[in-house]
Amino acid sequence: MLALELSRPGANGVHPEVATKIRTELYEERETPGAGIAAFAKAFIPSGTRIFCEEALIVVRDEARQPEVYKAVSSLPKDKQAAYWELAASSKPTKDVDWINQLRSSYDGEPDSFNAIVESHEQAWSIYETNRFSLRYPNGDYKLGIFPKSARLNHACAPNVFHRYNPRINRLTIHALKDIQPGEELNTSYIDICHPTVVRRQMLKGWGFRCQCVVCESPDDEQDYRRKQLEDIMKKVKKRESQRQLSGSNWPHKEYERSMKLIQKGVRLMNKEQMEESDTLGFLLTLATRYGLLMGQAEAAALWAASVVAIEEKCLGEDSNEHHAALVLRKTADAGGLASRTLLSSSILA
Ligand SMILES: C[S@@+](CC[C@H](N)C(=O)[O-])C[C@H]1O[C@@H](n2cnc3c(N)ncnc32)[C@H](O)[C@@H]1O
Fold first, then answer.
1. Going along the chain, which residue ranges are E strands?
2. Is ipTM beyond 0.90?
3. Where are the domains of the chain?
4. Which one of 9, 118, 226, 230 counts the least CB within 10 Å of its CB?
5. Whole-model pTM?
């Protein structure tokens, strides 16, 4: 299967595996019934462990279409191309045919060869759509990339690992969200999990499977209702934060109080759902800290900020921008909100 090229250690001293089948001490890849290849813990993995991190095989623009993706793959060394072609391809062909016409206009070979070229482009595209991860950069740039080890992680709506591209080390990092027992499958989430089952399943259709994780199959209506409430809360909190940004210092105290009530409810629901991800609980607690500082709740803000630091460290590691931002937030909160106005002028919604 994967044949990754040996390279010198990266910035964080990590060697890519050389084996044809990835086998690390912490996890292994193997077939799982009905869900292709998946990753399984080989040892106990404590919460917060960086299980692995890796560089992208290809990175393309958000706007890239079939020819650009195919070109990026074809430009790779042969062993890396092989690693790409071995990945799962589950997405359906697109209805877009413009790229085929464009290819044809510059093609002067045999018709049969042209059909084969189109098929290769379609296969490259399907692999890309099935396995791509987001790369967000501090300057706001957004790209998409293929990370071959991470691409073997199957989805669950109660994930036990968290993935995020770290631009500081130019790698996708995978961290344990909870203690993981030997034999347990490592699952990340492909989507925002603050939605009820019917919405999550709809969002996952593009990957061509019906999620049957413990949350989706749970007979507990209360759990589904909590996710629905979380969907509403996250939507409202984000909308209100955008309004606050627009109003600047004119946002009334009672509006902060309303947002705080929503945030507190969201945090309670997330605790029940055992969600401790950077994107969910980390997001709400960061806002709570900022609002708390402005509302003169310095003591509570310091506690929330400490939780944010812990969440970012667990999900993203000490070398992440988010962890650094959380340390600044905590410092401000510990200082009793002296710099709270500066802090509040920035948004975490971007
Ligand atoms: C990023 S790949 C994950 C690795 C993949 N299983 C493989 O064999 O390489 C995404 C694809 O894996 C499968 N998959 C991921 N999560 C799944 C799940 N919870 N249940 C069933 N299939 C899943 C789907 O076919 C999906 O399109």
1. 27-31, 37-41, 50-54, 58-61, 132-136, 142-146, 154-155, 161-166, 171-176, 185-188
2. yes
3. 58-134, 221-344
4. 9
5. 0.89
